[in-house]
């Protein structure tokens, strides 16, 4: 039976979940030098006609002459009532949408620790599974590092970690590895004390995994990038909507990352059996990914709105300038498996009050 035929039968039986997705805050693998510190991936499950009516309602309320509305229209103070309506219990996406958040700096720390000392598989190194040991170490390093080493040394560590894992660079094979371990030596000499020193010792001893990782990138340029949060965000999104039993079909805004090859890799991920800690369950299934222009699908426009406002609300909360009302309205949409290391802001953003404090 062909994939198209199977998907048609699933849809006819009412089991297929079709979602529309978009993202906000993408800087590819340059997670530290872009314009945003948070990446958000949003998905919406609505009938096309309902979504179109919702977009028209937003236009009627905002009354801007712009041809295409974006999240920044909703984020203007004068349009706050429209935003609170959209996110609130009377809005069209309440109970029908989901957003996965990524704190980019924590994502960099987590990937580096997973890759080098968390006994990660390549899937974990690419953010496709959650290694509990690596996650716990990353949280400690992320939370203690800035105050232990100061902003300059901490920034040096983040940038060298980012460069170590980038699939494309201008430095040759060895330079990113050499630079990373020089930074580790600088941090060790600074002497943070306690568990941070133990983590640094383990990182310092991980030269061989780092060299192997860089060699693998050169040997196989098709590997899923370790630092692009889009692919793991989609994996978590499929897990959410599948709930372990239902096949999921995605309609996604066009994105350079989602090549035919990447889409095939995504499908393959859900076609295999995975460990229980993989984070998306062995029975989740992705049937298709269709790329379309946001202007042609009102559901994607709604996902674009949600991704944009979620990124801004989460970034404000991360940087101690949160809006309590908007943060509370966002909480029901947030994926509890988001890549987030800051305990204070996560306690406000998480849909599960006790999660990862």
From TrEMBL:
It comes from the Bacteria. Pfam families: DUF3800. This is DUF3800 domain-containing protein. It comes from Streptomyces fildesensis.
